Amino acid sequence: MSASEAVVRPGPVPLYDSAASRSRALEEARALWAYRGLVHELVVRDIKVRYKRSVLGIAWTMLAPLLNMVALTLVFSTILKQQIANYPAFFMTGAIFWAFFSQTTSTAASQTQDSNEIAKRIYIPRSVFVAAAIGVGLVNLALSIVPLLAILLVTHFPIYTTWAFLPVAISIEMFFAAGVGLWLFTFASRFSDVREMYTVIVQTWFFLTPIVYHPAIVPAKFRFALWFNPLYYLVQVFRKPIYDGVLPSPALVAVSAALSVVVFVSGWIYFANRAERFAFHSG
Amino acid sequence: MTAAAILLDKVSVRYRIPRERIGSLKEYAIRRLKRRLYFDEFEALRDVSLEVPGGETVGVVGRNGAGKSTLLRLIARVMPPTAGRVVVWGRTAPLLELGLGFHGELTGRENIMLQGALLGFSRAEMRRRTPRIVEWAELEEFIDAPVRTYSTGMAARLAFSVATDVEPDILLVDEALAVGDERFQMKCHARMEDFRRSGKTVFLVSHALAAVRENCRRAIWIHEGRLVRDGDSASVTELYHGWSVGDPVALPQAL
Q1: pTM above 0.95, yes or no
Q2: B250 touching chain A per CB within 8 A
Q3: Interchain CB distance below 8 Å, A122 and B96
Q4: Pairing, β B92-94 against β B170-174
Protein backbone atom coordinates (compact mmCIF):
# COMPACT_ATOMS: atom_id res chain seq x y z
CA MET A 1 0.00 0.00 0.00
CA SER A 2 1.40 3.35 -0.94
CA ALA A 3 1.14 5.89 1.78
CA SER A 4 0.67 9.45 0.73
CA GLU A 5 3.04 12.15 1.92
CA ALA A 6 0.61 13.32 4.53
CA VAL A 7 0.70 9.97 6.29
CA VAL A 8 4.25 10.47 7.47
CA ARG A 9 3.79 12.67 10.47
CA PRO A 10 5.75 13.46 13.52
CA GLY A 11 4.20 12.34 16.72
CA PRO A 12 3.71 9.22 18.72
CA VAL A 13 3.57 5.86 17.08
CA PRO A 14 0.00 5.20 16.03
CA LEU A 15 -1.95 2.85 18.23
CA TYR A 16 -3.77 1.53 15.26
CA ASP A 17 -2.78 1.39 11.62
CA SER A 18 -5.04 -0.66 9.38
CA ALA A 19 -2.26 -0.99 6.82
CA ALA A 20 0.40 -2.28 9.18
CA SER A 21 1.42 -5.77 8.25
CA ARG A 22 0.99 -8.18 11.06
CA SER A 23 0.27 -11.71 12.04
CA ARG A 24 -3.33 -11.74 13.07
CA ALA A 25 -2.84 -14.79 15.27
CA LEU A 26 -0.10 -13.05 17.22
CA GLU A 27 -2.01 -9.81 17.36
CA GLU A 28 -5.08 -11.56 18.74
CA ALA A 29 -2.96 -13.25 21.39
CA ARG A 30 -1.40 -9.95 22.41
CA ALA A 31 -4.80 -8.27 22.52
CA LEU A 32 -6.27 -11.09 24.60
CA TRP A 33 -3.48 -10.63 27.12
CA ALA A 34 -4.11 -6.88 27.23
CA TYR A 35 -7.80 -7.52 27.85
CA ARG A 36 -7.35 -10.23 30.45
CA GLY A 37 -9.15 -7.94 32.90
CA LEU A 38 -12.22 -8.17 30.70
CA VAL A 39 -12.07 -11.97 30.73
CA HIS A 40 -12.00 -11.84 34.49
CA GLU A 41 -14.89 -9.40 34.55
CA LEU A 42 -17.00 -11.56 32.20
CA VAL A 43 -16.41 -14.65 34.30
CA VAL A 44 -17.34 -12.77 37.46
CA ARG A 45 -20.43 -11.39 35.75
CA ASP A 46 -21.57 -14.84 34.72
CA ILE A 47 -21.19 -16.23 38.21
CA LYS A 48 -22.77 -13.22 39.91
CA VAL A 49 -25.75 -13.20 37.60
CA ARG A 50 -26.27 -16.90 38.11
CA TYR A 51 -26.07 -16.39 41.83
CA LYS A 52 -28.48 -13.47 41.85
CA ARG A 53 -31.08 -15.00 39.61
CA SER A 54 -31.83 -18.24 41.34
CA VAL A 55 -32.44 -19.36 44.85
CA LEU A 56 -30.10 -22.28 44.49
CA GLY A 57 -27.49 -20.28 42.58
CA ILE A 58 -24.05 -21.77 42.89
CA ALA A 59 -25.43 -24.79 44.73
CA TRP A 60 -27.16 -25.81 41.52
CA THR A 61 -23.79 -26.25 39.84
CA MET A 62 -23.04 -28.89 42.41
CA LEU A 63 -26.51 -30.42 42.62
CA ALA A 64 -27.05 -30.92 38.88
CA PRO A 65 -24.36 -33.59 38.40
CA LEU A 66 -25.49 -35.32 41.59
CA LEU A 67 -29.06 -35.63 40.35
CA ASN A 68 -27.82 -36.80 36.97
CA MET A 69 -25.62 -39.29 38.65
CA VAL A 70 -28.48 -40.79 40.64
CA ALA A 71 -30.66 -41.13 37.53
CA LEU A 72 -27.94 -42.59 35.38
CA THR A 73 -26.71 -44.93 38.07
CA LEU A 74 -30.19 -46.38 38.23
CA VAL A 75 -30.45 -46.70 34.46
CA PHE A 76 -27.03 -48.06 33.72
CA SER A 77 -26.51 -50.32 36.67
CA THR A 78 -29.92 -51.97 36.60
CA ILE A 79 -31.21 -51.90 33.06
CA LEU A 80 -27.94 -52.36 31.22
CA LYS A 81 -26.57 -54.58 33.96
CA GLN A 82 -23.15 -53.13 33.55
CA GLN A 83 -20.36 -54.54 35.61
CA ILE A 84 -18.59 -51.42 36.73
CA ALA A 85 -17.20 -51.33 40.23
CA ASN A 86 -18.47 -48.29 42.10
CA TYR A 87 -20.49 -46.93 39.24
CA PRO A 88 -21.22 -43.60 40.99
CA ALA A 89 -17.49 -42.79 41.12
CA PHE A 90 -17.06 -43.90 37.51
CA PHE A 91 -20.00 -41.83 36.39
CA MET A 92 -19.11 -38.71 38.35
CA THR A 93 -15.62 -38.46 36.87
CA GLY A 94 -17.03 -38.86 33.39
CA ALA A 95 -19.87 -36.43 34.05
CA ILE A 96 -17.55 -33.71 35.32
CA PHE A 97 -15.29 -34.18 32.32
CA TRP A 98 -18.23 -34.01 29.97
CA ALA A 99 -19.91 -31.05 31.66
CA PHE A 100 -16.76 -28.98 31.20
CA PHE A 101 -16.42 -29.86 27.54
CA SER A 102 -20.07 -29.47 26.55
CA GLN A 103 -20.69 -26.32 28.59
CA THR A 104 -17.67 -24.41 27.37
CA THR A 105 -18.09 -25.34 23.72
CA SER A 106 -21.86 -24.73 23.73
CA THR A 107 -21.33 -21.36 25.37
CA ALA A 108 -18.75 -20.44 22.75
CA ALA A 109 -21.23 -21.40 20.04
CA SER A 110 -24.10 -19.44 21.53
CA GLN A 111 -22.29 -16.29 22.57
CA THR A 112 -21.69 -14.91 19.13
CA GLN A 113 -24.88 -12.88 19.02
CA ASP A 114 -24.20 -10.97 22.22
CA SER A 115 -20.55 -10.55 21.51
CA ASN A 116 -21.21 -9.17 18.03
CA GLU A 117 -23.51 -6.57 19.50
CA ILE A 118 -20.64 -5.32 21.61
CA ALA A 119 -17.91 -5.83 19.06
CA LYS A 120 -19.83 -3.85 16.45
CA ARG A 121 -19.43 -0.77 18.57
CA ILE A 122 -16.16 -0.98 20.38
CA TYR A 123 -12.91 -2.71 19.74
CA ILE A 124 -12.32 -5.78 21.84
CA PRO A 125 -10.44 -8.91 20.89
CA ARG A 126 -13.24 -11.37 20.38
CA SER A 127 -11.26 -14.23 21.81
CA VAL A 128 -12.15 -12.83 25.25
CA PHE A 129 -15.56 -14.44 24.88
CA VAL A 130 -14.12 -17.89 24.27
CA ALA A 131 -11.62 -17.34 27.07
CA ALA A 132 -14.46 -16.30 29.38
CA ALA A 133 -16.42 -19.44 28.47
CA ILE A 134 -13.37 -21.48 29.45
CA GLY A 135 -12.98 -19.50 32.65
CA VAL A 136 -16.59 -20.10 33.67
CA GLY A 137 -16.14 -23.79 32.81
CA LEU A 138 -13.09 -23.99 35.06
CA VAL A 139 -14.98 -22.42 37.96
CA ASN A 140 -17.81 -24.92 37.48
CA LEU A 141 -15.30 -27.74 37.26
CA ALA A 142 -13.74 -26.68 40.55
CA LEU A 143 -17.19 -26.47 42.13
CA SER A 144 -18.17 -29.92 40.92
CA ILE A 145 -15.16 -31.41 42.69
CA VAL A 146 -17.25 -30.98 45.86
CA PRO A 147 -20.01 -33.44 44.92
CA LEU A 148 -17.39 -35.77 43.47
CA LEU A 149 -15.53 -35.89 46.76
CA ALA A 150 -18.83 -36.34 48.58
CA ILE A 151 -19.68 -39.34 46.44
CA LEU A 152 -16.22 -40.85 46.87
CA LEU A 153 -16.43 -40.47 50.64
CA VAL A 154 -19.96 -41.83 50.89
CA THR A 155 -19.13 -44.87 48.76
CA HIS A 156 -15.83 -45.43 50.62
CA PHE A 157 -13.88 -44.97 47.43
CA PRO A 158 -10.16 -44.26 47.90
CA ILE A 159 -8.78 -40.85 46.97
CA TYR A 160 -5.58 -41.65 45.13
CA THR A 161 -2.37 -39.65 45.10
CA THR A 162 -2.67 -39.68 41.32
CA TRP A 163 -5.16 -36.84 41.75
CA ALA A 164 -2.05 -34.71 41.56
CA PHE A 165 -2.04 -35.40 37.81
CA LEU A 166 -5.40 -33.66 37.36
CA PRO A 167 -4.01 -30.21 36.51
CA VAL A 168 -2.30 -31.74 33.48
CA ALA A 169 -5.44 -33.63 32.47
CA ILE A 170 -7.55 -30.51 32.87
CA SER A 171 -5.11 -28.40 30.86
CA ILE A 172 -5.26 -30.86 27.99
CA GLU A 173 -9.04 -30.84 28.07
CA MET A 174 -9.10 -27.07 28.40
CA PHE A 175 -7.07 -26.47 25.25
CA PHE A 176 -9.11 -29.00 23.34
CA ALA A 177 -12.37 -27.35 24.43
CA ALA A 178 -10.96 -23.91 23.64
CA GLY A 179 -9.99 -25.10 20.15
CA VAL A 180 -13.42 -26.55 19.47
CA GLY A 181 -14.94 -23.39 20.94
CA LEU A 182 -12.94 -21.18 18.59
CA TRP A 183 -14.02 -23.18 15.55
CA LEU A 184 -17.64 -23.09 16.69
CA PHE A 185 -17.56 -19.39 17.48
CA THR A 186 -16.24 -18.63 14.02
CA PHE A 187 -18.86 -20.78 12.28
CA ALA A 188 -21.67 -19.55 14.50
CA SER A 189 -20.83 -15.94 13.66
CA ARG A 190 -21.51 -16.65 10.05
CA PHE A 191 -24.39 -19.08 10.32
CA SER A 192 -27.11 -18.77 12.88
CA ASP A 193 -28.10 -22.43 12.82
CA VAL A 194 -24.71 -23.67 13.99
CA ARG A 195 -25.80 -23.25 17.57
CA GLU A 196 -28.84 -25.52 17.22
CA MET A 197 -26.88 -28.02 15.17
CA TYR A 198 -24.22 -28.18 17.82
CA THR A 199 -26.79 -29.00 20.50
CA VAL A 200 -27.65 -32.12 18.55
CA ILE A 201 -24.04 -32.92 17.78
CA VAL A 202 -22.94 -32.62 21.37
CA GLN A 203 -25.73 -34.93 22.53
CA THR A 204 -24.82 -37.56 19.98
CA TRP A 205 -21.17 -37.15 20.85
CA PHE A 206 -21.99 -37.82 24.49
CA PHE A 207 -23.44 -41.21 23.72
CA LEU A 208 -20.64 -42.10 21.32
CA THR A 209 -18.04 -41.43 23.99
CA PRO A 210 -17.54 -43.82 26.92
CA ILE A 211 -18.65 -41.34 29.54
CA VAL A 212 -21.44 -43.23 31.26
CA TYR A 213 -20.51 -46.69 29.99
CA HIS A 214 -17.31 -48.65 29.88
CA PRO A 215 -15.65 -48.97 26.44
CA ALA A 216 -15.70 -52.74 26.96
CA ILE A 217 -19.44 -52.87 26.30
CA VAL A 218 -18.89 -51.58 22.76
CA PRO A 219 -18.99 -54.61 20.45
CA ALA A 220 -15.51 -55.47 19.20
CA LYS A 221 -16.38 -54.80 15.56
CA PHE A 222 -17.39 -51.22 16.36
CA ARG A 223 -14.63 -50.48 18.80
CA PHE A 224 -12.37 -49.01 16.13
CA ALA A 225 -14.85 -46.13 15.92
CA LEU A 226 -13.67 -44.98 19.32
CA TRP A 227 -10.17 -44.45 17.96
CA PHE A 228 -11.46 -41.59 15.85
CA ASN A 229 -13.08 -39.89 18.79
CA PRO A 230 -10.65 -37.45 20.43
CA LEU A 231 -12.72 -37.38 23.60
CA TYR A 232 -12.21 -41.13 23.99
CA TYR A 233 -8.54 -40.41 24.76
CA LEU A 234 -9.16 -37.25 26.73
CA VAL A 235 -11.72 -38.78 29.07
CA GLN A 236 -9.28 -41.56 29.95
CA VAL A 237 -6.56 -39.06 30.78
CA PHE A 238 -9.01 -37.43 33.15
CA ARG A 239 -10.57 -40.55 34.60
CA LYS A 240 -7.59 -42.80 35.22
CA PRO A 241 -6.00 -40.73 38.00
CA ILE A 242 -9.30 -40.44 39.87
CA TYR A 243 -11.05 -43.74 39.21
CA ASP A 244 -8.26 -46.23 38.50
CA GLY A 245 -5.64 -44.66 40.71
CA VAL A 246 -3.01 -44.89 37.97
CA LEU A 247 -1.35 -42.34 35.75
CA PRO A 248 -2.40 -42.46 32.11
CA SER A 249 0.29 -44.00 29.92
CA PRO A 250 2.77 -41.61 28.28
CA ALA A 251 1.45 -42.67 24.88
CA LEU A 252 -2.11 -41.80 25.88
CA VAL A 253 -1.04 -38.45 27.28
CA ALA A 254 1.00 -37.71 24.16
CA VAL A 255 -1.88 -38.52 21.81
CA SER A 256 -4.30 -36.42 23.85
CA ALA A 257 -1.95 -33.47 24.14
CA ALA A 258 -1.19 -33.60 20.41
CA LEU A 259 -4.91 -33.61 19.56
CA SER A 260 -5.47 -30.64 21.85
CA VAL A 261 -2.62 -28.65 20.39
CA VAL A 262 -3.71 -29.31 16.80
CA VAL A 263 -7.33 -28.36 17.44
CA PHE A 264 -6.37 -25.33 19.49
CA VAL A 265 -3.73 -23.90 17.17
CA SER A 266 -5.79 -24.42 14.04
CA GLY A 267 -8.84 -22.96 15.78
CA TRP A 268 -6.86 -19.95 16.95
CA ILE A 269 -5.43 -19.18 13.52
CA TYR A 270 -8.77 -19.60 11.76
CA PHE A 271 -10.53 -17.50 14.38
CA ALA A 272 -7.94 -14.73 14.36
CA ASN A 273 -8.05 -14.40 10.60
CA ARG A 274 -11.82 -14.21 10.50
CA ALA A 275 -12.35 -12.20 13.64
CA GLU A 276 -12.35 -8.74 12.05
CA ARG A 277 -15.01 -9.70 9.58
CA PHE A 278 -17.33 -11.45 11.97
CA ALA A 279 -19.71 -8.70 12.75
CA PHE A 280 -20.19 -7.22 9.32
CA HIS A 281 -19.59 -9.76 6.56
CA SER A 282 -17.41 -7.09 5.06
CA GLY A 283 -14.38 -7.28 2.83
CA MET B 1 -2.51 20.73 17.87
CA THR B 2 0.23 19.54 15.58
CA ALA B 3 0.22 15.81 15.20
CA ALA B 4 -2.68 14.15 13.49
CA ALA B 5 -4.97 12.19 15.74
CA ILE B 6 -6.80 10.47 12.95
CA LEU B 7 -5.89 9.96 9.37
CA LEU B 8 -7.99 8.36 6.68
CA ASP B 9 -6.29 7.85 3.37
CA LYS B 10 -8.58 7.05 0.41
CA VAL B 11 -10.70 4.77 2.54
CA SER B 12 -13.48 2.63 1.13
CA VAL B 13 -15.69 0.16 2.90
CA ARG B 14 -17.69 -2.45 1.05
CA TYR B 15 -20.19 -4.72 2.68
CA ARG B 16 -21.03 -7.98 1.02
CA ILE B 17 -24.68 -8.62 1.39
CA PRO B 18 -26.06 -11.95 0.28
CA ARG B 19 -28.86 -11.22 -2.16
CA GLU B 20 -31.11 -13.51 -0.25
CA ARG B 21 -30.32 -13.48 3.40
CA ILE B 22 -28.66 -16.83 4.00
CA GLY B 23 -28.22 -17.21 7.67
CA SER B 24 -28.11 -20.93 7.94
CA LEU B 25 -25.33 -23.31 7.20
CA LYS B 26 -27.66 -25.87 5.65
CA GLU B 27 -28.99 -23.37 3.15
CA TYR B 28 -25.52 -22.05 2.41
CA ALA B 29 -24.19 -25.53 1.71
CA ILE B 30 -27.08 -26.34 -0.62
CA ARG B 31 -26.71 -23.12 -2.56
CA ARG B 32 -22.97 -23.42 -2.75
CA LEU B 33 -23.38 -26.90 -4.23
CA LYS B 34 -25.86 -25.57 -6.74
CA ARG B 35 -23.56 -22.61 -7.35
CA ARG B 36 -26.32 -20.18 -6.69
CA LEU B 37 -24.84 -17.77 -4.27
CA TYR B 38 -25.19 -14.14 -5.14
CA PHE B 39 -23.88 -11.19 -3.26
CA ASP B 40 -24.68 -7.55 -3.56
CA GLU B 41 -21.87 -5.22 -2.83
CA PHE B 42 -22.76 -2.15 -0.92
CA GLU B 43 -20.24 0.64 -0.69
CA ALA B 44 -20.73 2.35 2.62
CA LEU B 45 -17.75 4.66 2.19
CA ARG B 46 -16.03 5.63 -1.04
CA ASP B 47 -12.60 7.08 -1.24
CA VAL B 48 -12.80 9.14 1.91
CA SER B 49 -9.70 11.05 2.94
CA LEU B 50 -9.69 12.95 6.17
CA GLU B 51 -7.13 14.33 8.53
CA VAL B 52 -8.03 15.35 12.05
CA PRO B 53 -5.45 16.97 14.31
CA GLY B 54 -5.47 16.42 18.03
CA GLY B 55 -7.84 18.72 19.87
CA GLU B 56 -10.29 19.02 17.02
CA THR B 57 -14.00 18.59 17.54
CA VAL B 58 -15.64 17.20 14.46
CA GLY B 59 -19.35 16.85 13.84
CA VAL B 60 -20.50 14.35 11.26
CA VAL B 61 -23.75 15.02 9.45
CA GLY B 62 -25.59 13.20 6.70
CA ARG B 63 -28.73 11.25 6.02
CA ASN B 64 -29.48 7.86 7.51
CA GLY B 65 -27.37 5.27 5.76
CA ALA B 66 -24.90 7.82 4.41
CA GLY B 67 -21.98 6.08 6.09
CA LYS B 68 -21.57 8.09 9.28
CA SER B 69 -21.59 5.12 11.63
CA THR B 70 -19.27 3.19 9.36
CA LEU B 71 -16.82 6.08 9.64
CA LEU B 72 -16.93 5.85 13.41
CA ARG B 73 -16.49 2.10 13.29
CA LEU B 74 -13.32 2.51 11.24
CA ILE B 75 -11.86 4.96 13.72
CA ALA B 76 -12.88 2.77 16.64
CA ARG B 77 -11.08 -0.09 14.80
CA VAL B 78 -14.21 -2.14 15.06
CA MET B 79 -13.90 -3.00 11.38
CA PRO B 80 -11.09 -2.80 8.87
CA PRO B 81 -11.39 -0.74 5.68
CA THR B 82 -11.85 -2.66 2.43
CA ALA B 83 -9.40 -0.33 0.74
CA GLY B 84 -7.24 2.53 1.89
CA ARG B 85 -5.67 3.12 5.22
CA VAL B 86 -6.83 4.17 8.65
CA VAL B 87 -4.31 5.40 11.18
CA VAL B 88 -5.23 6.38 14.70
CA TRP B 89 -2.84 7.97 17.17
CA GLY B 90 -4.06 7.50 20.68
CA ARG B 91 -6.71 5.67 22.53
CA THR B 92 -10.31 5.84 21.38
CA ALA B 93 -13.29 5.52 23.66
CA PRO B 94 -16.62 5.20 21.99
CA LEU B 95 -19.46 6.50 24.03
CA LEU B 96 -21.22 3.19 24.26
CA GLU B 97 -24.75 3.21 23.05
CA LEU B 98 -27.28 3.09 25.77
CA GLY B 99 -27.13 -0.06 27.74
CA LEU B 100 -24.50 -1.70 25.60
CA GLY B 101 -22.58 -4.01 27.84
CA PHE B 102 -24.73 -3.02 30.77
CA HIS B 103 -26.15 -5.95 32.60
CA GLY B 104 -29.49 -5.25 34.26
CA GLU B 105 -29.00 -7.67 37.12
CA LEU B 106 -25.68 -6.15 38.11
CA THR B 107 -25.41 -3.02 40.18
CA GLY B 108 -24.22 0.32 38.87
CA ARG B 109 -20.88 -0.24 40.55
CA GLU B 110 -20.45 -3.68 39.05
CA ASN B 111 -21.39 -2.30 35.65
CA ILE B 112 -18.74 0.40 35.95
CA MET B 113 -16.16 -2.34 36.41
CA LEU B 114 -17.55 -4.21 33.43
CA GLN B 115 -17.65 -1.11 31.22
CA GLY B 116 -14.11 -0.25 32.22
CA ALA B 117 -12.97 -3.74 31.33
CA LEU B 118 -14.70 -3.44 27.94
CA LEU B 119 -12.63 -0.31 27.37
CA GLY B 120 -9.50 -2.22 28.28
CA PHE B 121 -8.88 -0.97 31.81
CA SER B 122 -7.65 -2.99 34.76
CA ARG B 123 -9.72 -3.58 37.87
CA ALA B 124 -7.41 -1.53 40.06
CA GLU B 125 -7.63 1.40 37.65
CA MET B 126 -11.41 1.26 37.55
CA ARG B 127 -11.71 0.97 41.30
CA ARG B 128 -9.70 4.15 41.58
CA ARG B 129 -11.94 5.94 39.09
CA THR B 130 -15.27 4.72 40.40
CA PRO B 131 -15.95 7.47 42.99
CA ARG B 132 -15.41 10.19 40.39
CA ILE B 133 -17.58 8.42 37.84
CA VAL B 134 -20.39 8.04 40.34
CA GLU B 135 -20.12 11.63 41.41
CA TRP B 136 -20.30 13.01 37.89
CA ALA B 137 -23.27 10.80 37.07
CA GLU B 138 -24.98 11.93 40.31
CA LEU B 139 -25.89 8.37 41.16
CA GLU B 140 -24.45 8.09 44.67
CA GLU B 141 -27.71 6.81 46.11
CA PHE B 142 -28.38 4.25 43.42
CA ILE B 143 -24.96 2.94 42.60
CA ASP B 144 -25.45 -0.30 44.48
CA ALA B 145 -28.87 -0.96 42.98
CA PRO B 146 -29.27 -3.16 39.90
CA VAL B 147 -29.13 -1.17 36.67
CA ARG B 148 -32.48 -2.62 35.57
CA THR B 149 -34.04 -0.30 38.16
CA TYR B 150 -32.47 2.78 36.52
CA SER B 151 -34.34 5.19 34.29
CA THR B 152 -33.08 5.76 30.75
CA GLY B 153 -31.57 9.05 31.80
CA MET B 154 -29.74 7.50 34.74
CA ALA B 155 -28.28 4.79 32.56
CA ALA B 156 -27.21 7.41 30.00
CA ARG B 157 -25.49 9.48 32.69
CA LEU B 158 -23.63 6.45 33.92
CA ALA B 159 -22.56 5.47 30.40
CA PHE B 160 -21.37 8.97 29.54
CA SER B 161 -19.58 9.32 32.83
CA VAL B 162 -17.63 6.09 32.35
CA ALA B 163 -16.75 6.78 28.73
CA THR B 164 -15.44 10.25 29.42
CA ASP B 165 -13.76 9.57 32.74
CA VAL B 166 -11.39 7.05 31.25
CA GLU B 167 -9.63 9.92 29.47
CA PRO B 168 -9.44 8.68 25.94
CA ASP B 169 -7.46 10.71 23.41
CA ILE B 170 -10.34 10.41 20.99
CA LEU B 171 -13.97 10.33 22.06
CA LEU B 172 -16.51 8.95 19.63
CA VAL B 173 -20.09 9.93 20.24
CA ASP B 174 -22.90 8.48 18.16
CA GLU B 175 -26.28 10.07 18.84
CA ALA B 176 -26.00 9.36 22.51
CA LEU B 177 -26.66 12.83 23.78
CA ALA B 178 -30.23 12.95 22.59
CA VAL B 179 -31.37 11.43 25.86
CA GLY B 180 -31.37 12.99 29.27
CA ASP B 181 -32.67 16.24 30.59
CA GLU B 182 -31.33 19.71 30.00
CA ARG B 183 -28.99 19.60 32.94
CA PHE B 184 -27.44 16.40 31.63
CA GLN B 185 -27.07 17.89 28.15
CA MET B 186 -25.34 20.91 29.60
CA LYS B 187 -22.98 18.79 31.63
CA CYS B 188 -22.16 16.73 28.55
CA HIS B 189 -21.47 19.87 26.61
CA ALA B 190 -19.20 21.21 29.34
CA ARG B 191 -17.31 17.98 29.53
CA MET B 192 -16.76 17.84 25.79
CA GLU B 193 -15.50 21.38 25.98
CA ASP B 194 -13.00 20.32 28.67
CA PHE B 195 -11.97 17.52 26.42
CA ARG B 196 -11.31 19.79 23.53
CA ARG B 197 -9.38 22.25 25.64
CA SER B 198 -7.06 19.55 26.95
CA GLY B 199 -6.10 18.70 23.39
CA LYS B 200 -8.32 15.70 22.90
CA THR B 201 -10.30 14.88 19.83
CA VAL B 202 -14.05 14.52 19.72
CA PHE B 203 -16.15 12.98 16.96
CA LEU B 204 -19.85 13.62 17.20
CA VAL B 205 -22.34 11.97 14.89
CA SER B 206 -25.71 13.59 15.19
CA HIS B 207 -28.86 14.60 13.42
CA ALA B 208 -29.28 17.40 15.88
CA LEU B 209 -27.58 20.16 13.93
CA ALA B 210 -27.75 22.50 16.88
CA ALA B 211 -25.75 20.03 18.96
CA VAL B 212 -23.15 19.81 16.20
CA ARG B 213 -22.84 23.60 15.97
CA GLU B 214 -22.63 23.91 19.71
CA ASN B 215 -20.11 21.17 20.38
CA CYS B 216 -17.96 21.13 17.28
CA ARG B 217 -15.68 23.58 15.58
CA ARG B 218 -15.50 21.57 12.39
CA ALA B 219 -18.07 19.49 10.57
CA ILE B 220 -18.05 17.04 7.71
CA TRP B 221 -20.98 16.03 5.57
CA ILE B 222 -21.17 12.54 4.25
CA HIS B 223 -23.50 11.77 1.39
CA GLU B 224 -23.87 8.29 -0.07
CA GLY B 225 -20.50 7.25 1.24
CA ARG B 226 -18.60 10.29 0.00
CA LEU B 227 -17.23 13.15 1.94
CA VAL B 228 -18.90 16.09 0.23
CA ARG B 229 -18.15 18.98 2.56
CA ASP B 230 -15.51 19.61 5.18
CA GLY B 231 -15.38 22.94 6.92
CA ASP B 232 -16.42 24.95 9.93
CA SER B 233 -19.49 23.54 11.59
CA ALA B 234 -21.69 26.61 11.10
CA SER B 235 -21.39 26.67 7.32
CA VAL B 236 -21.49 22.90 6.80
CA THR B 237 -24.57 22.43 8.94
CA GLU B 238 -26.22 25.35 7.19
CA LEU B 239 -25.52 23.84 3.77
CA TYR B 240 -26.70 20.45 4.92
CA HIS B 241 -29.84 21.90 6.42
CA GLY B 242 -30.55 23.82 3.24
CA TRP B 243 -30.19 20.67 1.18
CA SER B 244 -32.29 18.64 3.61
CA VAL B 245 -35.22 20.98 3.30
CA GLY B 246 -35.02 20.86 -0.45
CA ASP B 247 -32.54 23.40 -1.71
CA PRO B 248 -30.91 21.55 -4.64
CA VAL B 249 -28.12 24.09 -5.02
CA ALA B 250 -26.72 23.16 -1.66
CA LEU B 251 -25.52 19.71 -2.69
CA PRO B 252 -22.15 20.25 -4.29
CA GLN B 253 -21.95 19.79 -8.02
CA ALA B 254 -19.17 17.27 -7.61
CA LEU B 255 -21.75 14.57 -7.07
Answers
A1: no
A2: no
A3: yes
A4: parallel
